[in-house]
Each structure stands twice: as C-alpha cells, then as structure tokens.
C-alpha cells in the first residue's frame, strides 16, 4: 500500500514538472515571437524614414540648384545692365558731390563777402577802397588794407631812420599812423615804434583813446614823399604795454 502511494506521488511530481517545463517553453516562444515582430516593425519603419530623408534631401538639393540658377540669372542680368551703363552710377554720385561742393563754396563765399562788407563798413573811414580781412595771426583779429597817401615830409634824401623822441621821423610817423586810422594824433597813445630789420620800414603800435582799440600800423618810407601806411592790424590786446610796467 505504501509503495503504491509512493509511486503515485512520484508520477504526480513528474507530471507537474513536465507541465511547468512546457509552460515555460510556451512563454519563451511567445517572447521570442514578440521580439521577432518588434525587430521586423523596427526595420520596416527605419527603412521608411531613410526613404523620406533621402526624398527630402533630394528636394532640398533641387531647390538649392533652382535658387542658384535663378540667382545666377539675376546676377548675370544685373552685370549686363551695369556693363551697358558703367558710368551712370559714378556720374550721378560725382554730380551730387560736385553740386554739394559748389553749394558749400558758394555759401562760404557769401558769408565771407557779408562779413567783409560789414567790416569794411566799420572801417571805411580809414580811407578809400578799404579792404578788411579776418586774420589767424596770433593777437590779430583783422587786417585792414587801404589806399593811403604818404604823409608829406620835410626831410631830404638820402634818408636814414631816427626813432628817437622828438626826431623828425618820430613826428612824421606819429602823424602818418594817426592818418591811417583817421584819428587825431592828440587822441592817440603811441606805445612803440620798431623796425623788423628791413630798411625804411617801421611798425607802430598805437592806441586810439576814443574807442580803446589797439592797432599796429605798418609804414614804409617812400623816397622824396615820406612815410606811407601800408596796412593796419587790429590787435586783441596791447602786446607792447609790458615795456612800460
């Protein structure tokens, strides 16, 4: 009895073991099938993506080629147009620049003329045909040129300069300087008479007490005629005053 029970129990265990083995094999077969299916699907979709990318790249290349040909055509047309009229752009630009330059020069000339006319009106009492110019010389604001006569002299030739106080040259230079600015010599302070090294040439630094203006009068000795003013400079400040301080 015990042996029969033991044999039956052994058969049951074997049967259960085979059933488990069979079940496990079935699971493995199912998993293998799923994996194979996934691989097939992956391969299929991957092939489609590659085909789409190739079509897309080919389309881009075709578009780029088409755009390049279009750009080349437009560039070629533009070059032909430029070659037909190579100087048209340059002529327009040059014409505009010339016109702008001419207008600027005309404006500068008009401003200079207006300024010169105003200055000439201010100093027209200095003599006939007075010309007034702006100056960039240090301490000089304006240069006045006129048509002055020589101040009559009582000296004989040959002449030699004597700038000492009370000398004939000094008296005549004072009167000639006053004449150049159309002022009375009694209303003028004569600060300095000096020569720049040239013979028969003197520069007189004077102050008109009527308006306080400082002038430097350039005078030249004219043989048998006397001292003649050549030009008058309007000074910003008295640069000879330091000699007496």
TrEMBL record:
Disordered, as annotated region: 50-123
Record domain DUF1510: where: 144-235
Tagged with keyword Membrane: yes
Superkingdom field: Bacteria
Keyword Nuclease: no
Transmembrane annotation, as ranges: 24-45
Keywords: Membrane, Transmembrane, Transmembrane helix
Family matches, as InterPro entries: DUF1510 (IPR009988)
Composition skew (Acidic residues), residue ranges: 50-67, 76-121
UniProt-recorded name of the protein: DUF1510 family protein
């Amino acid at each position: 009895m015990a042996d029969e029970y033991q044999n039956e129990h052994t058969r049951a265990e074997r049967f259960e073991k085979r059933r488990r083995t069979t079940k496990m094999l079935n699971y493995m077969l199912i998993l293998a099938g799923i994996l194979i299916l996934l691989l097939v699907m992956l391969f299929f979709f991957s092939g489609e993506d590659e085909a789409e990318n190739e079509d897309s790249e080919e389309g881009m290349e075709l578009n780029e080629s088409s755009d390049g040909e279009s750009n080349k055509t437009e560039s070629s047309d533009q070059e032909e147009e430029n070659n037909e009229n190579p100087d048209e752009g340059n002529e327009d630009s040059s014409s505009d620049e010339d016109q702008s330059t001419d207008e600027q020069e005309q404006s500068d000339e008009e401003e200079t003329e207006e300024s010169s006319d105003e200055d000439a009106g201010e100093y027209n009492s200095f003599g006939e045909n007075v010309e007034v110019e702006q100056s960039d010389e240090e301490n000089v604001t304006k240069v006045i040129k006129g048509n002055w006569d020589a101040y009559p002299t009582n000296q004989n030739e040959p002449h030699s300069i004597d700038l000492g106080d009370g000398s004939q040259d000094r008296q005549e230079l004072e009167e000639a300087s006053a004449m150049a600015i159309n002022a009375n010599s009694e209303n003028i302070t004569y600060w300095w008479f000096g020569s720049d090294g040239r013979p028969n040439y003197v520069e007189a630094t004077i102050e008109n007490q009527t308006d306080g203006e400082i002038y430097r009068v350039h005078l030249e000795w004219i043989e048998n005629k006397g001292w003649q003013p050549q030009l008058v400079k309007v000074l910003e400040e008295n640069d000879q005053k330091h000699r007496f301080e």
